[in-house]
Amino acid sequence: MMLFIAIGLVLAGCSQDQTNGNNPKEAPVVSGDRSADRALNAEVARSTEQKLLPGYAAKNEDELSDQDFETAYEMCVRALTDYYKAVWNGSDIELDTFIENDHLKQYTQQKIQSQYDVHIKHNLTDNPVQNIDIDAWEVEYRDDVDGGYLYLHLPVHINMTVGGYGEVTEFLVRNVNGKLVIVDWYTGAKDSYDFMVRGENLTIDDPDIWNDSEWVKKLDSMTDEF
């Protein structure tokens, strides 16, 4: 009798040890898996969110401020760098990164193609652009009824494999749904595309000019000549 009782106690103890032993092992594994899943999901969400964010986000979604000066400058420098490499080297340029207005985008595409064709025609593309340098640049905030805009004045030196040249480009930048975008862009160097098509010594101060359908039509007739 005592032998059966002893055997029963031993079996009960083993069963209890197995129960107590399994639970602590299972809990961390399950908990660990769920934590890993949550971390992975959070990382995927952050990655997706970053891809959806605009390349040049305004500091505040609904307004411009002096906190956007540096970002606007970086965007315009990137636009100029890609632009000069496009017209001299034949490199691609993603205008959607900088420009939202379809009229300005189309004009800029025509401008790039026209200048690249000239460089090809005169065998000038064997001296490609390496990079650009910006001299003393200026930026200011200008208020208007549509939330204001930024005016940037960028003297740029284009460094080519051999030599280089310089000219000044003016930009107007707006905050459109939290994204900084170029709404006008003019290079007034003598014999430049803008100089010949849009005219010389222009005052660049109308951020809505590319929304003026009549003005765009007149400009289209001018671009047909180039």
C-alpha-based Rg, rounded: 31 Å
N-to-C SSE series? HHHEEEEEHH
User: If helices are DSSP runs of H or I spanning 4 or more residues, what is the number of helices?
Assistant: 5
Strand content: 15-25%
User: Count the strands?
Assistant: 5
Low-confidence segments, given as residue ranges, are 1-54
Helix content: 40-55%
In whole angstroms, the N-to-C terminal distance is: 112 Å
Task: Give the overall pLDDT as a whole number.
Answer: 82
Shape: globular
Largest sheet: 5 strands, antiparallel
- Going by helix content, strand content and strand pairing, the class is alpha+beta
Short description:
With 226 residues, this protein is of the alpha+beta class.
Outline the structure in words:
This protein has 5 helices and 5 strands, in the order H-H-H-E-E-E-E-E-H-H. The chain is α+β, with helices and mostly antiparallel strands and 226 residues long. Helix 2 packs parallel to helix 3 (102-121).
Give the helices and strands, then pairings.
Layout: H1 2-52, H2 69-89, H3 102-121, E1 129-134, E2 138-142, E3 149-160, E4 164-176, E5 179-187, H4 193-197, H5 213-223
Helix pairs in contact: 2-3
Descriptive labels:
single chain; 226 residues; alpha+beta; 5-stranded antiparallel β-sheet; 5 helices; 5 strands; 20% strand; disordered N terminus
